[in-house]
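Example S7 (structure tokens).
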């Protein structure tokens, strides 16, 4: 009985260590601006969902993360390939940057990719809706929505709505 208990404790300890190691690079907390290189960013955070190369050689990498994809991090690399900074982008300050007349490519550079399951086409209005699930200031899940003209990819409007998929029909909390 003692051996089974010790084996179970060892197994839990290993599982805990793996979880801690996996979470260490979740938002790039183990990376150092000015020192970490692109290969180190990718080793820590994984393959980016999207990447953009700028004319000056700098690069931007998008990392959707979080429970139910409620966070997206942007890693910015300088022309020398070294990490400049990592920003959490599913926040009010970034949402306020999105406005009428912007192209969908600009929106992607600010917020990263929307959740596939939250992309919809409305044929009657010829609009595409992209939605990002995020944790609002009250630690409750909410959606930020952007409506685009389906032909031009130009933003028509933006909005927010609660995520009502909790077991009681209320907004799920973010677990903070």
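Recovered sequence:
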């Amino acid at each position: 009985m003692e051996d089974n208990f010790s084996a179970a404790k060892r197994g839990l300890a290993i599982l805990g260590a793996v979880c801690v190691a996996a979470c260490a690079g979740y938002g790039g907390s183990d990376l150092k601006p000015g020192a970490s290189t692109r290969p180190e960013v990718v080793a820590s955070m994984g393959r980016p969902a999207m990447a953009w190369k700028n004319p000056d050689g700098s690069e931007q990498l998008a990392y959707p993360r979080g429970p139910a994809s409620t966070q997206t991090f942007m890693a910015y690399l300088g022309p020398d390939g070294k990490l400049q900074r990592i920003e959490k982008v599913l926040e009010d300050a970034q949402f306020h940057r999105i406005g009428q007349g912007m192209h969908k490519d600009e929106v992607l550079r600010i917020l990263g990719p929307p959740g596939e399951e939250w992309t919809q086409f409305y044929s009657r209005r010829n609009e595409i809706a992209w939605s990002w699930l995020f944790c609002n200031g009250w630690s409750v899940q909410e959606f930020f929505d952007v409506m685009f003209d389906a032909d031009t990819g130009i933003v028509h409007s933006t909005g927010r709505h609660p995520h009502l998929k909790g077991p009681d029909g209320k907004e799920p909390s973010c677990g903070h």
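Notes on this example. The chain has four helices and eight strands.
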